[in-house]
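Dear Dr. L.,

I hope this message finds you well. Following up on our conversation about the binding site, I have prepared a predicted three-dimensional model of the protein together with cytidine-5'-monophosphate. For your records, I am including the exact sequence and ligand specification that went into the calculation, followed by the structure tokens. Please feel free to forward this to your student if that is useful.
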Amino acid sequence: MLKKPEIIVALDTKSLDSAQSLVKILGEKISYYKVGLESFVLFGHTLIDFLKKNEKKVFLDLKFHDIPNTVAGAVTSAAEIGVDIINIHCQGGLEMMKKASFGLKEYCIKKGIVQPKLIGVTLLTSLDSKYFEEMKLNWNSTEEYVKHLAYNAFKAGLDGVVSSAQEVKAVKDICGTDFLTITPGIRPSFAADNDQKRIVTPKDAYLLQTDYMVIGRPITKHENPALAVDLIKEEMK
Ligand code: C5P
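The resulting structure of the complex is given below.
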């Protein structure tokens, strides 16, 4: 029997009230939320504390990309505030990823705190092969590039990667089935594509056996977000 992917709802908003009321409206239907750049910059810790008080899990999506020492400092700070998943850019390089992963492990053991899952961002789902021309990169396909970045993340000791669901099989083939995949760019049949390019339906993401699906606007901008979640779950049957 195939495992159903966990839905992570992306709380991309400038209104703390609307983020909090969405969490209340979705209740038991959703246990994982993503706090990203837009909401974290405005009210990060308040929102994270609210989610924790409501026994929700938190994916802190700040996509760290800096020199190795700074990124290692950022991921250990994220561990201190008690989030469950954090991420860094694979394009920051192998040394940066290694320093973040070993630094995080060492820090959490020393402090006796639960280690958040450390995830690498491969290629943003808003980008496609045009990006290679733009950056003068010599890759034949997005899949080839994502596989390369994912394997670097695996070698550096990360727990998984963010990629399009289209690349889950390639990632799992090269890094093993336990290597986690978090996939945004999910578009149910009732939703618009928005700015996402490498999109996949919930049903296909499920059949491709991703571990987590990140879904924002199809739920948060729906006139009835709880119904949107039910429809997405229905599509996965
Ligand atoms: O609204 P939508 O479903 O497109 O939201 C997707 C979320 O996933 C956004 O918060 C976006 O920042 C995030 N994300 C993404 N592509 C990645 C990594 C994160 O769309 N590769």
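In brief: The beta strands are 6-10, 32-36, 57-64, 85-89, 117-121, 160-162, 180-183, 212-215.

With kind regards,
A. P.
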